[in-house]
Amino acid sequence: MMARKQATEAPAASNGSPKKRSSADSDNHDVKRPRLQESTDKARWRLSSEGGRHTWHYLEDDEATKEWPQSYADKYFLGMPLDLPELPKATNPLDAVRNGLTFFEKLQLPEGHWGCEYGGPMFLLPGVVIARYVTKNPVPWYYATEIKNYLFARANPVDGGWGLHIEGESTMLGTTLNYTTLRLVGVEADHPVMVKARATMHKMGGAIYAPHWAKFWLTVLGIMKWEIVNPVPPELWLLPDWVPIAPWRWWIHMRQVFLPMSYLWSKKWQAEETDLIRELRNELFVEDWNKIDWAGNRNTIHPNDNYHPKTAFLNTVNWLLVNIWNPVFRTKYLVEKAEAWASELIDMEDENTDYSDLAPVNAAMNTVCCYVRDGPGAFSVRRHVERLDEVLWVNAEGMLCNGTNGVQCWDTAFAIQAIMDAGLTEDPRWRPMLIKSLEFLEDQQIRENVKDQDKCYRHPRKGAWAFSNKDQGYAVSDCVSEALKSVIILQKTPGFPTLIDDQRIFDAVDTMLTYQNPSGACSSYETPRAGQWMEVLNAAEVFGNIMVEYEYPECTTAVLTTLSLFKKHWPNHRTAEIDNFITRAVKWIKSNQKPHGGWYGNWGICFTYATMFALESLASVGETYENSKYAKKGCDFLIAKQREDGGWSESYKACETGKYVEHPTGSQVVMTAWALIGLIKAKYPDIEPIKKGIKLIMDRQQPNGEWLQEAIEGVFNKSCMISYPNYKFSFPLKALGLFATRYPDEKVV
């Protein structure tokens, strides 16, 4: 452990072991904490969806519960019994599709899309709770109660800590922030869950071993001092655009997080000190708070959190900023100019998203920035707090925070495609459900580019779709592609209305064409603005590949398959450019294949996910097992990973290590579906392994038509996993449907 010097300042702090708070302990300035209950009445929760915006409401009034009855979707999300009748047992894959759709249509929300939790990361909820606490907007008691229940349920059963994500080992990021969150919502320090978590935190060295993001939030709370936070000067935003490390070149999530972080770092703002903050200073550390060498522990980090250690170059830059830049060159004029520009960029982000912001991390930070700058009663603060509700979700375990404000457009697109692959789009039974889906996608298409697009460094988005909804408004290459593909599928099916005219479809295609990089690949939010060398400045520590945009097989294949479909219906629109795009994309996909035959997945786990998309994209241009060595190698890779029971099972560890790792719980329905889709699309010649996989999916289907949740499905930045619960419907349905249409006479059971 690093030596610690006597701090030069010694603010008052509580001493001794944590004690239970009483009303007499609180001073007049303490933020009122909600009254905690054992649990809420799940029958009183309702999910509202208006304009694709999800908010959960707790109805304390009995009359209100009668006027707004719970839907099947509400009950399902809350883990309540649905009391649905058993369906006739499926005797073939198409019957299994119909049973699955019979269940899945009950989860469709009134506007026509499918919602679900998008949880997994364990560092998101603390940001929301901390932002509300420091801006004196504490969560209501029913939020607090279910936040407590969720975090209790997700504590590591062995050591009591929390990880980076729900399946990960305990980390200091997860444990310090979630312990703090529980205290902020009203859990006492002597609760057994807290005692166990605190013991683990102390065993790991205490909060000084937390990574950068945790140190930032704990400093905003006033639990730490700003000296422990590595410098994030807003002056970086004053760098000319031509400078290779200028922030506009960073990946969108990185720059939108470090933007408000830099503003608050520069202001050195901290929340009003309360009794609870003083208690947390006593609880989170193993040493006397007054004696901690804050500056000496800026780089102290526990090995479990140090996925991407800071480089020697970054450490040198930080030293120079602290010891040379700050005391010598950081003039008042420069600071004020930098803060003003950072503030304006924050305003543009808020305006372009109506205060939803890109994701919960920067939304929570922007909330605090507006509070610091505009004051507690400002519209900007009130609107932020309102919109933070849209990232919160209630499930059977309690209240969590989603990775964005939902997955509305993304999941709806996949649901439509699953029905198409089963050959059921013309079946009158499913037409009302599909028309509602089409209406939702029509409503959610983004019709214009953002205001001041170039000034705020945004990529074109006219005609696009976001991952969640148009309020959030960030176009992503594969989200645009999957949504457009679904629109084309339905609007070219007899009996469906044409809600999106040709010009709006052309707008979407025109935007899609802007995503291709010189290599032929596509990235996610925008084309890369700098190279991988920028990772030498990766200060996040817990994530890899976070500084810049990267090239992704999933994004490339999504655009490729959609353009291939588009060409069939509109052969004369930008023909040469689209042909060139497809040729270059196919070439890159082939070059991205790993020696073992698979493709590495960046947004789903892992090789199974990306290999499915790669094989599907090759098939869209006529390359299959029979005539393409790349498709053959991809199929052989999947077949080699099939388990004895016919399924596939890949662990999130594959994302971290870059090597295929079996999941310890065995075959997974979702991954089995991914593998089967790839094999069927590629026309793998041996039907027997495919039949074995199909049988596993059918055997796992429940009598009411659903599939149960298994292991986590998604990932981002190599190290953090995230949940896609609707995948257990859309992809098994797609695999079953593809099999039924490709092999209509084959018996599986």
From TrEMBL:
<dbReference type="InterPro" id="IPR032697">
    <property type="entry name" value="SQ_cyclase_N"/>
</dbReference>
<keyword id="KW-0443">Lipid metabolism</keyword>
<comment type="similarity">
    <text>Belongs to the terpene cyclase/mutase family.</text>
</comment>
<protein>
    <recommendedName>
        <fullName>Terpene cyclase/mutase family member</fullName>
        <ecNumber>5.4.99.-</ecNumber>
    </recommendedName>
</protein>
<dbReference type="Pfam" id="PF13249">
    <property type="entry name" value="SQHop_cyclase_N"/>
</dbReference>
<keyword id="KW-0677">Repeat</keyword>
<feature type="domain" description="Squalene cyclase C-terminal">
    <location>
        <begin position="409"/>
        <end position="739"/>
    </location>
</feature>
<dbReference type="Pfam" id="PF13243">
    <property type="entry name" value="SQHop_cyclase_C"/>
</dbReference>
<keyword id="KW-0413">Isomerase</keyword>
<dbReference type="GO" id="GO:0016104">
    <property type="term" value="P:triterpenoid biosynthetic process"/>
</dbReference>
<dbReference type="GO" id="GO:0005811">
    <property type="term" value="C:lipid droplet"/>
</dbReference>
<dbReference type="InterPro" id="IPR008930">
    <property type="entry name" value="Terpenoid_cyclase/PrenylTrfase"/>
</dbReference>
<feature type="region of interest" description="Disordered">
    <location>
        <begin position="1"/>
        <end position="46"/>
    </location>
</feature>
<dbReference type="InterPro" id="IPR032696">
    <property type="entry name" value="SQ_cyclase_C"/>
</dbReference>
<dbReference type="GO" id="GO:0000250">
    <property type="term" value="F:lanosterol synthase activity"/>
</dbReference>
<dbReference type="InterPro" id="IPR018333">
    <property type="entry name" value="Squalene_cyclase"/>
</dbReference>
<keyword id="KW-0444">Lipid biosynthesis</keyword>
<keyword id="KW-0752">Steroid biosynthesis</keyword>
<feature type="domain" description="Squalene cyclase N-terminal">
    <location>
        <begin position="106"/>
        <end position="351"/>
    </location>
</feature>
<dbReference type="GO" id="GO:0006696">
    <property type="term" value="P:ergosterol biosynthetic process"/>
</dbReference>
<feature type="compositionally biased region" description="Basic and acidic residues">
    <location>
        <begin position="22"/>
        <end position="44"/>
    </location>
</feature>
